[in-house]
Amino acid sequence: MEHYTMNLTLKVWKQKNKNEKGRFETYPVKGISSEMSFLEMFDVLNEQLVAEGKEPIAFDHDCREGICGACSMYINGRAHGPWHNTTTCQLHMRQYKDGDTIVVEPWRANSFPVIKDLVVDRSSFDRIIQAGGYISVNTGNAVDANSLPIEKQKADESFAAAACIGCGACVAACPNASAMLFVSAKVSHLALLPQGDPERKTRAVNMVEQMDKEGFGSCTNIGACEAECPKGISLENIARLNREYIGSVFSGSSDKA
Amino acid sequence: MNWKNAFSTSIGKKLQMSLTGLFLILFLIVHCYINAQIFYNDGGVRFTEAAHFMGTNFVIRTIELGLFAFLILHVVQGLLLWAKNRARRGTRYAVSAGNQTSRWYSRSMALLGTLVLLFLILHLSKFWGPNRLSQTTGHGELDLFTMMRDEFQVTWIVIVYILGCIALGWHLLHGFYSAFQTLGLGTSKYKGLLKGIGVAFSIIVPIIFALMPISFYMGWIS
Lengths: 257, 222
Description:
The complex is a heterodimer.
Chain A: E1 5-14, E2 23-33, H1 38-51, E3 74-75, E4 78-79, E5 101-105, E6 114-116, E7 119-120, H2 123-132, H3 152-162, H4 169-173, H5 180-191, H6 200-213, H7 224-228, H8 236-249
Parallel strand pairs in A: 1-5
Antiparallel strand pairs in A: 1-2, 3-4, 3-5, 6-7
Helix pairs in contact in A: 2-5, 2-6, 3-5, 5-6, 5-8, 6-8
Chain B: H1 3-6, H2 10-35, H3 45-56, H4 58-88, H5 104-107, H6 109-126, H7 128-136, H8 144-151, H9 155-182, H10 191-218
Helix pairs in contact in B: 2-4, 2-9, 2-10, 4-6, 6-9, 9-10
């Protein structure tokens, strides 16, 4: 596709801090190249704002390679914008044409409070991981990587679940603000491997309880999470989490997990 | 984990919706089979026989109590979940492109369910209510076939019944497969099969139900 430049109108959510009420601000941006990434377009806008002596827009970003999960942004009603299997940093401006208006909002969920502008606090995900997303490992010398035989299919499924980068697009896109796809990916990649066995009976229950405590909504199998996940995490993981949960409920022990 | 907690977490409540929903689906199958007896067009002989069994058999009447309990649980839990989930978003998005990522009926289960419930209230007040009232007050069973024939001469009732069946169809289109996904059966092995059966069920059963008032109205059954 041929390179072109465009002028755009951005409507961006500005919010000073967690407690203050936010609002939309309108910014014209000029001379954006179709080769730029969406975040580079924001860099141009921010440089322009700094030059004018105004405060730049705060947004999360880190690797800019589509693998870290830091960037967020709800773009024209879509988490990470309209491209399939794509993070915001990998969304490119060739998606847009001259004169377009783009509305950019932060992830919206009670469990992801806005810190500033487009930056939200996703530490609720960390606390869910702390509740059960770990395995027991012996101390001493590292074991040989091939010492445990693992079926190819299970290794592949586990790897696919482990691709979750914890970006929170699933929560942002879910009409219920549910974190089930994230939790299911984190439970799945361990449940499929022998290394995950020691905590298997308690992991799903503990992580689900923490997820509820953090105030996420509950899953009603709508499927928007899967459609918006930049890593293509499948709803089959949610089915697996449900099975893991039912399994630990029926496992015979009535103790608190 | 004990039983009480098992059903009180978010997945626990989802299981409540799934299990009660599946029971209601089983009820639909039985109800549809019994009522489809009218299509023999035998003046309601087979239908009346089947309705008499369903209305007087002790086991069936006991299960009926369970059916109402499950129905109420499904409705109350569903509405509570809807209200809670809605509140979890906090500030609403200014722009939403939900249609690009999910189906409208999947997002509208509470609305569709409420429509089905409103229809159900009308439906019960027309047939089940008067019949049970007559039974418990010692006046015996009512002639449900004649009641159907009379009620379904009224245009607005027939229209409401058709709309009720449409709402039920959309509700099932999400609910049928969703119930199995909640039980953990949404795997690559079963997903296609269950989705296929779900779509077929959600179309065929409401059509059979809708054909009942239509058939009486059009005079296909007398």
